[in-house]
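Alanine--tRNA ligase
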Amino acid sequence: MKSQDIRKAYLNFFESKGHLIVPSAPIVLKDDPTLMFNNSGMAQFKEYFLGNGTPKSPRIADTQKCLRVSGKHNDLEDVGFDTYHHTMFEMLGNWSFGDYFKKEALDWAWEFLTEVLKLDKDRLYVSVFEGNPTENVAFDQEAWDIWRQYVTEDRIILGNKKDNFWEMGDQGPCGPCSEIHIDLRTDAERAAVSGRSLVNADHPQVVEIWNNVFMEFNRKADGSLEKLPAQHVDTGMGFERLCMAMQNVTSNYDTDVFTPLIEKVEQITGFKYTSNEVKNVSEEQNKTNIAIRVIVDHVRAVAFAIADGQLPSNTGAGYVIRRILRRAIRYGFTFLNTKEPFINKLVEVLANQMGEFFPEIKSQQQLVTNVIREEEASFLRTLDQGLQLLDKVVAETSGKEVSGAKVFELYDTFGFPKDLTALILKEKGFSYNESDFESELQKQKARSRAASEVSTEDWSVLIPGNVETFVGYDQTENEVKITRIRKVDSKKDGILYQIVLDNTTFYPEGGGQVGDKGTLVSANETIDIIDTKKENNLILHFAKQLPENIEAGFVAKVNTDLRTSTSKNHSATHLMHLALRNILGTHVEQKGSLVNPNYLRFDFSHFSKVSDDELRQVEASVNEQIEAQLQLVEHRNIPIKEALEKGAMALFGEKYGDSVRMIEFGESKELCGGIHVKNTADIWQFKIISEGAVAAGIRRIEAITGDAVKDFYKNQETTLAEIKETLKNPQDILKSVASLQDDNAKLKKQIEQLLKEKIDGLKNTLVSDFQEINGINFLAKQVDLSMSSTKDLAQAIGTSKPNSFVFLASVEDDAPNIHCYISKELVAEKSLNAGNVIRELGKYIDGNGGGQPFFASGKGKNVLGIKEALEKAVDFLI
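Structure:
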């Protein structure tokens, strides 16, 4: 049974059981401050388990893209070395929100596996929670009794808290779970050793495929459990493992989920992958297998993350994506001998394979390909730089053991993998101090944990059962009551308090727009609200202190100055999006945005730099829309289908409900929950400040509106006045500047002529200083010239004599530079290489460089090293 058919069978089965089938949420979570990535099937439903929202249906099923590479759930280092861990995986899930419970969940799980998929019942084992007296949680007798209808007692395993009690985190909904495991070993292996003894023992062929979680409790901050008001079911089945069981293989990578990708890697690299059925493979073949598994796994995670809007970067979620991709590149570089970008070529295979169920990978295929290709090229350059740095470290090492701290510096600062370092050192007869490396790594992790450490107390509920209301589209202040509060302590921000109101005018951060600031005012005091965010469907108002009387009535007042400036920038973003699509083409899609009171930032897909003329057209188009005084047309709760039919733009990577908010300004129509001006005339003026690249195929524009534009023009006027004063207040400034430029050009020509004469003079002087060493005309000198002039001199002297080896150094702006010229006949006959000379001698000036075999240049930091570099140059001829 093909993987596509298995997925369909699952969804059809649960649809027949009254479940609403919903699409996968984006793999990247943009509006959940507690998670970077969707790491489980239930993540998108957290608000329902917490009682902060109402689902579309009490029964839901889907297949969810998940990513586990950070935090509590981190499988990254296992990926590739075994056959069943992945960074990105699909989780088939069915949920009940206060509807059915254990009986239906387990009955249907068994029915689907054994009657629909017809898996061998004799290969299945189940587990139930053994109970935990210290937490007053009883043995799960109900689950035991249900399973006894289907299996014998020797196939039911009692699991402890670690294996059979599932928790969303340190706090929140949790409960006992019942897992289903399958034994995929041969009949002979099963006869020799019982599968029961291998359950939860990390055996690669005795694996968990389905977990049924029964949400009954809420874990409080003090560790205690309280009963939830309603019982829920949260199940998750590993799609890749299920495919392994259905396709009679013993490795996820031998299923058709991965084989098309593996075949493409084989085709590109020439290396062959051996399936898990092949036993006793050589050590070299095992390394090849691991490398190919790493690559085909990681490209899925990276490609889907980019398609959902997360570009690789140096911080946050972007750093995680970059780290995954670099791990894949490194395995190809080391074990598959790939020195050019190639992982990007797998995206087409992935899009063809998964585009039916996940259309985003098909529609974003070109962008994903471009971004991955650029990242590959960049990291391959980093690896090359790391090799040079490693050579320097080795040269400075006495003995045969390199400092672990130095290896960590390469890893931490330059992204150079420690295992690649170890491999290269081994080839050179060196090792490194692993304990020192681990010590430095742990120190860094401790610093990182300390910086991000957050402790959150339980909610103190003042008004139970309240459902808060957002009224900020129509009001900027209103009367409110506090419904719940909690204290949050973090190393980064210190002690803050999160306040929830019965209704609020404060817009929570989301959709690129920053959260509102303002005050809560009572008869006796004023509390500053420093930020507003949304978490699990609750709008959280952040304050540095709580009111003395938290039960008092308050007036919630948004800072209208900040709100107004932000709304101008947000509406201008919509107008600019339309202008970009009209002027550059409909391929333009939003890939990220930031809207705050000071400026707007907009990332979009486009294949080349936006020209100055195109930017002027975009700016003019937006200002025309502003001058047209377009009235805001707002659709508060319009069915998403109707909004799309009206031409509204929906963004990939965003999660939309059945009903949406649609914003119209003339031809501009977008799905958006943000705050906007009532009329485009309120924006006053729009000005683009900068345009540049963010990643391959992604451009970024920053712009300003309103008062910021006034300030911009005022600064321009001030600058112009200062220029006039500097130029002695000429009648015609442009004519005066042009005259300066002409004078400057004449002076440059004079300087160039003087330099040429100086170089010619030095050339004539230095030619007489050549020494003949082993038939080679050798010269090594320091000269008093700029870097470019020294380069010209080296080439001029080198070409003046046959069989010449010229090495010149000079200092410019307190930085040393070196240049090497080698006659082409010496390059051919004696295998001399100017690039190697510069790399080796560059170590003495704390620098590096490169070039061609007959000419190369370098730059460094240590001027004092020039003397030794000049002295060592002759060694290349001996």
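The first strand starts at residue 20 and ends at 21.
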